[in-house]
């Protein structure tokens, strides 16, 4: 069922979301100072392609720089993205078929608000492997 939902998501809106996040990531990587935001945009593009069966968790080693970066992100881009995902989720929830897709859009709100210091994992990952030491 998860694969079917992911394929429907990919065809209807996942590709467009991922392209948008990838373009934003490329623009952010062109400017040296905003490379962390570009990498976060690529992570969001990956999550937007295949959201079902995956979840966003906080990295154990995320500290003050991630928090400061997330505050900057929320002010300039995060709340716009969250509002767009919320609006799309409401529009998708009008139809019965769109309810799971609306749920996936709601899952994208936390990553669009605070992308730094987070990692995307499979839902099937064992509990002891959920917080990898990513350098």
What is the first-to-last residue Cα distance? 34 Å
Q: In what range is the share of β-strand residues? A: 5-15%
**Structural class by sheet pairing and helices:** mainly alpha
Number of helices: 4
What is the topology, as strand order, of the major beta sheet? 1-2
Instruction: Compute the average pLDDT.
Output: 84
Coarse shape: globular
By DSSP, the count of extended strands is 2
- Encode the helix/strand succession as letters: HHEHHE
| Low-pLDDT residue intervals, each spanning 5 or more residues | none
- Main beta sheet strand tally, sense and closure: 2 strands, antiparallel
Task: Note down, in words, how this protein is organized.
- The chain is mainly alpha-helical.
- Helix content is 65%, strand content 7%.
- The chain contains four helices and two strands, in the order ααβααβ.
- It has a two-stranded antiparallel sheet.
- The chain is globular, with a radius of gyration of 15 Å.
- The mean pLDDT is 84.
């Amino acid at each position: 069922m998860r694969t079917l939902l992911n394929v429907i998501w990919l065809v209807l809106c996942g590709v467009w979301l991922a392209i948008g996040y990838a373009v934003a990531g490329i623009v952010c990587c062109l400017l040296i100072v905003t490379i962390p935001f570009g990498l976060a945009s690529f992570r969001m593009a990956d999550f937007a392609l295949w959201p079902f069966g995956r979840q966003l968790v906080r990295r154990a080693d995320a500290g003050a720089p991630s928090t400061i970066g997330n505050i900057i992100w929320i002010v300039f881009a995060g709340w716009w993205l969250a509002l767009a995902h919320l609006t799309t989720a409401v529009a998708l929830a009008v139809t019965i078929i769109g309810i799971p897709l609306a749920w996936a859009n709601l899952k994208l709100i936390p990553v669009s608000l605070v992308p730094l210091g987070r990692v995307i994992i499979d839902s099937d990952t064992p509990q002891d492997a959920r917080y990898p030491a990513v350098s």
